[in-house]
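Same chain as my last thread, 496 residues:
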Amino acid sequence: MRVKKLISTFSLFFFLLLACDTENNQDTTPPGILTIDSIVPTNGGGIINYSLPSDSDILFVRAEYTNTLGNDVYRVSSSYNQSIEIDGLNQDTPVEVTLYVIDESQNVSDPVVVDFVPLPSFIYLVQESISISPELGGVKMEWENVAQKTVYVHVHIVNGSDAKKYLNRLVTRNVDICKVGQVMYTPWCDENGKVIDDGTIQRLSKNKFRITSAEPNLEWLECNSKGLDLTIKDDSASTAALALQGPNSRKILNEVANDSLDQLKFFWMMNTKIGDCNVSISRTGYTGDLGYEIWIHPDDAIKIWDILMYKGRPFGITATGLHALDVARIEAGLILLDVDYISSRHAIIESRKSSPFELGLGWAVKMNKKSFIGRETLEKEIAKGLEWEFVGIEIDWDHLEKLYREVGLAPDLPSTAWRNSTPLYFNHQQVGYATSGAWSPILKRYIALAHVKSNYASEGTNLDFEIKIEHFRKLTKSKVVRTPFYNPERKRSCPD
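reply #2:
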């Protein structure tokens, strides 16, 4: 699990885990060594598969290596895993990795040293594919992103007497009602009412706010601040975040934080300490369940991670990656930039752009505000009526199974969330397209998020969903359903 710094290059980590035990000082016997089973090179790294020794008190495995820039790096993997991922490399020469087993008393095994040659890094593959050509009035840049990865969240600090006035101009929500300690989700639009990005606003004090977003927006933020008494700071070097999500997240935080989380409301935040580290905890996240995000100084990130891992073991804490997160955010009906919608700053043609209303975010547009960027166009859109709406889709399992059975196969369900434009039909006429979908392991349902023409967007409308079976395109039954697909009461409630 990578720990990166924030803002313009701020990487938000979903779910947590690693560990340390400082309580048992009696055991001094080191654990046995790993047995290496295989090494699978990946783009920019590799996965080392191993078998653990038989010791019953193993806490985690640590891998140490030097990356391509010459920096010393270590990665850890809990005792529940049988592999560890090495990343952050861009080289065609072998990387040497040293692996240790650490037990609950912090005893360290003898080292096991392996080496392998990683595949080319995705980042540099994208960089090398960039081409620039002249266009009327500017230039056109094109590149290939074979991994289709979205990995960064960007954070900016807005501070000053005009900060609230500025944000009200910038976003569609009414920042006037945002109290100190409150968090507000919001999209923001261009002058034509099309969504540039979406994210959160945290009110840290009377005149200080933190903005998080999926894209770097510093230039745009500064451009719209002319003539106002405020400063905008790119905070990536001084802020990091860890996300703890799931039914037991509150219980774990109550074990480690100096103050109880029981009364922290949904989309509010509080300041406390974990160990000797100052932290700010917001009740937010990119999943459909109870969850929190922990805002800390980057130097404290690993320490907090270890504490959470150790204290969270009795609650079944585990580290999860972007694939698991993608399923969780689809279950929650949460949109993803450049997957479920395209930023108006990225879209080449007008039809690729979306308004907040077309993304199901009408509840986050406060037309009673005097003015905000894009307001006039959105007023006209309301008067005219929406052409498109953003909905949930549930694929009919029985019909899907029947289509596969006709060719002698079991249903081929996706093992991870997919991010492809998939046509939707009504009476063989295309009326929309799904943007992302997944088999939900919690709901035991095949679900998707989709753009659908308004005439066909009513809950319960039957549509045909395009699939491919043995290289042939088929249509399986589906219907429009309400989102979020998964919305447990504990996400928003506090204990009695």
